[in-house]
Amino acid sequence: MTPPPNSHEGTGEWHQTFPGKTEQVRAARRFVQAHLPNHPDADLIASELATNAVEHTRTGQPGGIFTATVKHHPDGTAYIEIADQGGPIAFGIRTPAREGGRGLHLVTALTTAWGVNGDAAGRIVWVQLPPPTP
């Protein structure tokens, strides 16, 4: 896959902005996979974070956007962030019958660290990935 035009090829850091639509989650996943091919879980993690941005923030409203950033470090570790357009923090209660509510547990299991920066005006959810296993 050729890096998208708003990436910074050769710098170890790439960015791409996507429309805040459910079908764009797949595009974000491919973007991350293209830049972190040696990190097998990176695309899954990006998919979870992008889905949350579209479903739980103003990003999913008409005209909304989210931006994916990928950084590859010389030691093999990697960083992914999804920047959304914010909104209230109001997630539903997780129940056995509810489909969602488990994705961030998956993110926790697959990353060395993750967090959230920002507020109702816009948030960045970021993750650190360990070096790939040989």
Please, could you describe this protein's structure?
This protein has helices at 24-35, 42-56, 103-110, and strands spanning 13-19, 65-72, 78-83, 113-119, 122-129. The protein contains three helices and five strands, in the order βααββαββ. With 134 residues, the chain is an alpha+beta fold. The two termini are 23 Å apart. Mean pLDDT is 87; it is low at 1-10. Strands 1-2-3-5-4 form a five-stranded antiparallel beta sheet, covered by helices on one side. Helix content is 26%, strand content 27%.
Descriptive labels:
134 residues, alpha+beta, five-stranded antiparallel β-sheet, 3 helices, 26% helix, 27% strand, globular
Largest sheet: 5 strands, antiparallel
Structural Rg: 14 Å
* Average pLDDT metric: 87
Strand order within the widest sheet? 1-2-3-5-4
Low-pLDDT segments: 1-10
**How would you sum up the global shape?**
globular
N- to C-terminal distance: 23 Å
DSSP helix fraction = 25-40%
Strand tally = 5
Discrete helix count? 3
Order of helices and strands: EHHEEHEE
Q: Based on helices, strands and strand pairing, what is the structural class?
A: alpha+beta
Strand content: 25-35%
